[in-house]
Each structure stands twice: as structure tokens, then as C-alpha cells.
Amino acid sequence: MQVQGAVHSSYGLENHGIQNVNMVYWNLSTSLLYEEAIRRREGRLAHLGPLVVRTGHHTGRSPNDKFIVREPSSESKIWWGKINQPMEPDKFATLHLRLLAYLQGKDVFVQDCSAGADPAYRLPIRIITQTAWHNLFARNMFIQAEPEELAAHTPQFTVIDTPGFHAIPELDGTRSEVFIVINFEQKLVLIGGTQYAGEIKKAIFTVMNYLLPQQNVMSMHCSANIGSDGDTAVFFGLSGTGKTTLSAEPTRTLVGDDEHGWSDRGVFNFEGGCYAKVIRLSPQAEPEIYETTRRFGTILENVAFDSATGRLSLDDDTLTENTRAAYPISHIPNATRDGLGGHPTNIIMLTADAFGVLPPIARLTPAQAMYHFLSGYTAKVAGTEQGITEPQATFSACFGAPFMALSPTVYADLLGEKITRHQVNVWLINTGWSGGPYGVGERMKIAYTRAMVHAALSGELTEVATIPDPIFGVAVPASVPDVPSEVLNPRNTWMDKEAYDTQAHKLAVMFSENFKAFNDQVSSEVKVAGPKL
């Protein structure tokens, strides 16, 4: 076993059962990982310095291929079901042994880093990858260890990521050749059969979602930023709702774009980087994120690239709608370096309503906040997951069900308690369609959404009169600076008012049907906080 790279931990690979590998690249810097990725033809260097990679036909997460090992320490806590599917310990052991055998004679890359910016809740992790670019992804996405910390780094959780190793469904009990398996007892994640690097990030997010609520820390699929007055805002929302875009705001300081904890000390980022969708990114509407696509150190997944000139086309969706940039958070000029914020003053729940029904902004009571948090409604937009070619309504509890290891009510109870204790304002913002459903209406102008977010966060809406939405019961502001008043009432934007009423009723029924799963687990106040049929 030959070793190359920076300082490496005294806690060696033999502790992970990894033996007889060829070359071990420990904690390589960004530039050295670039060299390895290009030398191995894993990626190409584009104009101005980003690394362009392809993920094959795996251009999105594989939610049906995620498993949690059924073992005594975690079995009674896990939210078992379609999302957290059980794998028996003997199946895991066999898969693990075959994966270790597969690695023999191969090169591996190791990054020692951590998740969780708050030192009180920081989780030291190790990411072992088969490819250089996946190692660079880990280096970008997680919190890098200081050089003096590396020698003593002992991981509390390890990810072994082998895109070239495939499961055998008949033998391993998986659904396909792709697998993402978390073993809480062994503090180990195995990933194989997929080139999609996002699985590494989301596996560690699932781990944090398991560990932190047991320490009374709310783990959140959200972005967060801080205003000039020191006020923290949190943005919940699924992929494609604007979470990353709306939190990267020049007048506010970014804490993080996707994963946070909320402890008794305030909000903290889990990550050291950002993972943004970049399809049709605009230098005018999203200047900060746009600039990251022109920087050394950024990985661009499945972005169209002219091999003759090295220039990118961010508008080209030939490979997938889910084109991504993974970059260190330091690429955003006004991001905090410590990843810490205070208790939120405002929480914004984002949805992209493809039915064109929900108001573009509304204020929620604490009970409505818990109802909408447990509902986690949006429209899945084409390309985020395999097999989805056009938007469809989806309900994802806690705005991130695929990553929630515990029951959604655990997170909702924590949220409700914290909203009440810290007197947080909660807003529902619809970045989806107006004037009709997808295909008829138009997507809400980002300038209007930004104006609404600004008004909510600046306190300008505190004194503004509100009108209850007749079906959803949420309080809609009568006016918002820089937003035409007719936009605020969704029914007014439709030519055919009866069609709107039909569509609104249809969506209300969907909310109601979906919430039946939680009816017997929530208070009567939360139960009645949904739409009126």
C-alpha cells in the first residue's frame, strides 16, 4: 500500500477493513485532486477553471435504493417504510465483504473532514472514494479539518463510495445495482453503483438527522442567512423551489444553502460548501451562484461543455435538468466563515405549486407552520429524480422526507416548540405558477419573490392588513412593496375563475388525504390548521 498526500490520520484504513489497495491518496488539496481527476479522465477543465464531470445515466438521487441496517441500537427509532427500507445485518455483512474485496488492488482517495459547524455538535467523518472527483466533492461539501487536526482525526462516521461496484439484487436484497446503505451500529455508509456524488452528501445528512434530534437539536433541510441587523432567516424547501437562490442574497450574509441544525445556541450549518442547481442560471437573477460556475474549485455535474473551446452552456439540458455545481461556501463573497447564526427571526417555507393555487406569500400561525412543515408540499420538477419528466405534486414531510431517519413528528414537535419559544414569524412563499397551472400559467417572477422575501424579513409586513385565503386559511398580505397587488391573490390572476376554484379544491383534497398519516399524532390545533374542504 503506497501513500501520497498531506498529513494522514494515525487512525488508518485497516480500521475500516481496507487492505491490499494500491495507492492511498490522503487529504489531497483541491489542485492535486484536479490533477488526478483530469489524469484519470474523470473530468475536464472548463473555461476559467471549473471541473466538468458526467454522472452517466445517474443524474439524480436514487431514493428507492436507500437502506438502513436493521440492528438493535437504532431499530426502535427509525421511521421505517418506503423511504427508510430495512436491510438485514447478514445481507449488509456480505455486501460489505464483497465491496472490500473489490477495492483490493485499486487506488483510493480519503478526505478527513466533519459535519456540523457548531463545535458542540460537530461530527468527525471520513469519506473514502474510488474516484478523485468524488473526493473533491467531499472536500467541497464538508467542513475541512485544519492541518494540525488531521493526524489525530478519528472518524465517528465513515462513507465508502465505490461507483464501479454494483450490488446483485438477488443476493443483496437491493432493488437495483445501486445501493446507499447506512449502518448506525457500525457508523458506516456504503455507496455503490452510482456516479451521482450527491448521495455522499445526503447520506451524511441522514446521519445528522438521526443523531441530532436525540440531543434536542432540530435538524433541517433548509438554507439560512443573516441580515445586517443580525437577524437570522431560515428557508425550508425542496429541490427547485428557490432555497439556494433566495438565500444567496447580496444584502444578507449566507450561513449555508441546504442543511442546518437549530440548537439552544442558534442555527449552524452542517456543511462547508453548496450544491446548487445551475440549469438556466442567470447572471442577472442569481449573480453570486452564476459566478461560482466560473471559478477554480467548482465541480459542474452534467453541464454542457464545448470540448473545442472549453466553454459552458448553462442553458443546455441535453443530459438532465438536474445540472449541479458543488463549490466551497467561500466562493460566495458574503458567506460566514464560521457557519453560525442566531435563533431565527423569520422562517420561510418555500413551495413551487404547479397547480397555480397557493398565494405567493402568506403568514402562518404556529399550528399552520407545523401543518405545512409536516405536509412539505411542492411540485417535483423534471430531472431532480430519475423517471420524472414533468412536474408532479409531491408531499415530502419536513421538506426533506428522503433524508429523515426519525418519524416526521419528532422534527415537527421540535419546530413547534422552538417557534413558540423564540417567537418566530413563519411565512409560506409560493415560487411556482401564477395565472394557471404548469403549462398554462407562468412561473412567479423571481423579482417579485425577492421583493416578498425582502418585505417579510425587513419587518415591512408586520403592520400590513391580511386577508385569509378562503380555502387554505393562511393570512395573505393585502399589499407588498414592489409587487403588483393583483399577483397577491392567485384567483385574480386566472382568466377562468371557476377553473381556479376547481383546481384549488383538488389541491385541498390532496393536502387533506396526505395529512391523514399524521392526524392521530398531532394536536387538534394542528389537525384543523389545513385547508377547509
Describe the structure.
With 533 residues, the protein is α/β, with parallel strands linked by helices. Among the domains are: 2-41 and 62-195, Phosphoenolpyruvate Carboxykinase, domain 1, CATH 3.40.449.10; 228-240 and 344-527, Alpha-Beta Complex (Phosphoenolpyruvate Carboxykinase, domain 3). Helix content is 25%, strand content 26%. Helix 1 (30-39) runs antiparallel to helix 3 and helix 9 (366-375) packs antiparallel against helix 10 (408-422). The protein starts with a strand and ends in a 6-residue tail after the last helix. The model has no long low-confidence stretch (mean pLDDT 94).
Query: What CATH architecture of the domain at 228-240 and 344-527 do you see?
Result: Alpha-Beta Complex
Number of helices: 14
In percent terms, what proportion of residues is strand? 25-35%
The fold-level CATH name of the domain at 228-240 and 344-527 is Phosphoenolpyruvate Carboxykinase, domain 3
- Which value, in Å, is the CA radius of gyration? 23 Å
User: What percent of residues adopt helix (DSSP H or I)?
Assistant: 10-25%
- In whole angstroms, how far apart are the ends? 67 Å
- The poorly predicted ranges are none
Q: Tell me, rounded to a whole number, the average pLDDT.
A: 94
- Morphology call: globular
What is the CATH top level name of the domain at 228-240 and 344-527? Alpha Beta
The largest pleated sheet is described as:
10 strands, mixed
- Name the structural class: alpha/beta
Number of strands: 32
